[in-house]
Design brief:
Elements: H1 2-21, H2 25-32, E1 41-49, E2 55-62, E3 83-84, E4 88-97, E5 100-110, H3 112-164, H4 177-264, H5 269-292, H6 298-330, E6 342-345, H7 346-356, H8 358-361, E7 367-371, E8 377-380, H9 382-400, E9 408-416, E10 420-427, H10 434-437, H11 457-468, E11 472-477, E12 483-490, E13 492-493, H12 496-502
Parallel strand pairs: 7-9
Antiparallel strand pairs: 1-2, 1-5, 3-4, 4-5, 6-8, 8-13, 9-10, 10-12, 11-12
Length: about 500
Amino acid sequence: MINEVETFAELISTNAASGIVFNDNVTEEQNLQALSAAAFINNVHIYKLNPANELEFFASYNKTGQAPVRAMFGQTEKLATPTFGADALEYMMPVTLEGDRVGYTYIRASIDALNKLTLNTILITCSVLLLALMLSFLLTLRLQRSVTHPIEELVYLVQQISHQKEYSSRAKASSLKELDILGSAFNDMLATIQQHIERQELAEEEYRRLNLSLEEKVGQRTTALKEANKELIQTLEKLHQFQRQIVQNEKMASLGDMVAGVAHEVNTPIGLGVTASTMMLDRLTQLQKDFENKNLKASALAKFLKEGEENLNIIYRNLNRAAELISSFKQVAVDQTSENARAFAFKQLMDEILLSMRPKLKKLPHDIQLHCDPNLTIESKAGPINQIMINLIMNSVIHGFEFMEKGQIDIWVEMQGNNKLSIRYVDNGKGIPEHLCKRIFDPFVTTKRGQGGSGLGMHLVYNLVTQALNGSITVTSEEGHGVEFQILFPVRMLEHSDIAKSS
C-alpha cells in the first residue's frame, strides 16, 4: 500500500509541476478527477510555493462522498514518509521541476482494504489453529488408545486368571517395549505357576498310587520287619543315646553356616535361596529313591524333615532379604513406609545399629564415636533413623575413607528445646567436590558410576529425613576436609515416668 501511495504521489507531482509553473489550477483539478479510478485514494492536495517561499493551496481532489480535509501546510516534515493514522495513510511529496522545488503533493489514502486483509488473515490463522488443535486432539486420542488398549487387555487377562485359575493363558506381545517386558515377565510367572501345579498334580497322583499299593507293600515287609526288629531296637537304643548331641550339633552347624553365609553373601541372597532349594531337591530325590528301594528309615525321614525345615527357613530369610534390598534400592519416595512411632533410648538404638554393621566394619580400622546422653529417650520412628545412620556410615566408609588407612566418624546427638532432636554427623574423609555437594541429595548422583554405586543412598536419606521424620538435613563439605551433615527433626522427649506408663 505504501508503494502504491508513493507511486501515485510521484505521478501527481510530475503532472502538477507544469500546472504550478503556469499557475493553471483549473486544468490541474480536471486532471485530478482521473484519480476516481483509484478507489483507495480519498483526498489529494497540491500546494505551490509563492515568491515568499510559503505554501499556498493550489488544487485538490476529494473522493465522491468523502469530506475535504484541512490544509497540511505545517506537516511537510512529519509526512515526508508515509504515515498510518487511525483510518488513513498520509504522505507528502515535494513537487520539483528541473531540480527546483515548486510545491508539495499531499495524499490521504483509505486503509479499509488493509484492515479487511488483516481481519481475513486473523480469521484464516484462527481457523488453521483450530483445525490444528482438532487434529492434535484426535491424534492424542489415537495415541492414548494405542497405549491404554494393551494395558486394558493385560488387566482383563489378570482378572480372568484370578477368577478362573486358568494359568495356561498368556499375555499377547505388545508394541510398547515396557509393556512387552511386563507381559513377558507375567507369562514367565504363569509358566512357573503352571509347572508347579503340574508337578503338584503328579505328586498327588503318585501319592495316591503309593497309598493303593501301601497295604500290599506292608504285608510284604511285615516278615522282614519282624526279623530285623531286634536289630532295629538295639540300633534305636544307641541312636537315642546320641540323639540330643546329634540334634544339637546339627542346630549349631546349621546356625553357623547360616550366619557365615549371610555375612559372606549378603549381596547375593537369591543365590543362597537357590542353593538351599537345590539341596532340598537332592534330599527329596534321595528320600524318594530310598522309599522306592524299600530302604527308607525313620531316622533318615526325621533327618530329612529337620533339614527340610532348616533349608526352607534359609530360603525364606534370603528371599525376604532380597525383597528388602530391592525395595531399599528402588525406594526414592519414603511415603511408601508405614512404620509407627515408638519409644526408645537413642544410644541403645545406635548401639544396635553399630552391632548390626559389625560384620561390615570389623575388618576396617575406622573409628566411630557417639556423643549422646545415655538417658536420652524419645518417641519417634526408629526404622527411618536406623536406615539414615546406616546409609551415612556406609557412605563415609565407601566414599569418604577410600584409600585412607583410618577414618574418624563423630556423631553428636542432643535435644534442641523439648520437641526437636539434632544429629550432627562429621567424618574426616576426603570430602565432597563442590559440583557434587550442590546435588548430593539428587537421585542417581554418585562418584562410583559403573562400580556398583546406584546414587540413591543420599537421596533416600533426604526423603527419610524430610518426609518420614518431617525434618530437615543440610550438608557442609570441602574437598579434602571431610563432610558434616546436620539433621533436625521433631520428636517427643520422654521422662522416666512417661516410659513407665507406656510400658
